[in-house]
Amino acid sequence: MEWLNVTAEHGLAGLLLASFLAATVLPGGSEAVLWGFLKIHPEQASTAIWLATLGNTAGGMTSWACGRFLPRWQGLDRLPRMHHLQRWGSPALLFAWLPLAGDALCIAAGWLRLHWLPCCLFMALGKGARYWLVAQGALAN
Fold first, then answer.
1. How many other β-carbons are positioned within 10 Å of the β-carbon of residue 97?
2. Which domain holds residue 93?
3. Are 109 and 101 in contact (CB under 8 A)?
4. How far apart are CA 135 and CA 64, in angstroms?
5. CA distance 37 to 129
6. What is the reported pLDDT for 11?
7. CA of 137: how far to CAs of 34, 45, 64, in Å?
8. In this structure, what DSSP letter does residue 112 have?
9. Contact assessment for residue 120 and residue 61, using Cβ atoms and an 8 Å cutoff
10. Which UniProt keywords apply (predicted)?
11. Quick one: which of 37, 58, 59 has its CA closest to 49?
């Protein structure tokens, strides 16, 4: 299993990239990458959680930016799901970590012109909590 002997630096860079790509519309499982990395380098847990959160939040904000620059179509903001996002605002992005729905939330938040800073903060909180839970599971076994 020498092929699994990944240095911490290379593994952290791969984790950052995987978490960024997983937050865009590209499919990816950054949780599995985090889990595997922590099995090899458990001493790097806090750095790994921080970098995974950073990468995933940056990917989510990229989706937010894509939504921000989409043209505003009449009537689309009256869709029931858009209405809920308008009502809850940026705190709804605590759920940006959800598969598929999270990408749509990020894009819709940008399209609705929700302010970027609260969106980024709520997104990071939700994504960070998810990675912390994954890390707890990986380190417990």
1. 25
2. 2-140
3. no
4. 26
5. 18
6. 83
7. 11, 12, 30
8. T
9. yes
10. Membrane, Transmembrane, Transmembrane helix
11. 37
| CA distance linking residue 60 with residue 90, whole number of Å | 13
With CA atoms as reference, report the closest residue to 7 among 32, 31, 43, 57.
Answer: 43
Number of compact structural domains in the chain: 1
The residue to which tokens 């858009």 are assigned: 82
Distance between CA atoms of 29 and 87, rounded to whole angstroms?
30
**Distance between CA 90 and CA 120 in Å, rounded?**
8
Tokens of 110: 């940008």
Residue 17 DSSP label: H
Spatial separation of the C-alpha atoms in residues 94 and 126, rounded to whole Å: 4
**DSSP string covering 30-55, please?**
HHHHHHHHHHH-GGGHHHHHHHHHHH
What does the alpha-carbon distance between residue 16 and residue 21 come to, in Å, rounded to a whole number?
Answer: 9
Instruction: Please list the pLDDT of the chain residue by residue as tens digits (141 residues).
Output: 344 455 677 789 889 999 999 988 677 789 999 999 999 899 999 999 999 999 999 999 999 999 999 877 665 555 555 666 777 889 999 999 888 888 889 999 998 899 999 999 999 999 999 999 999 999 996
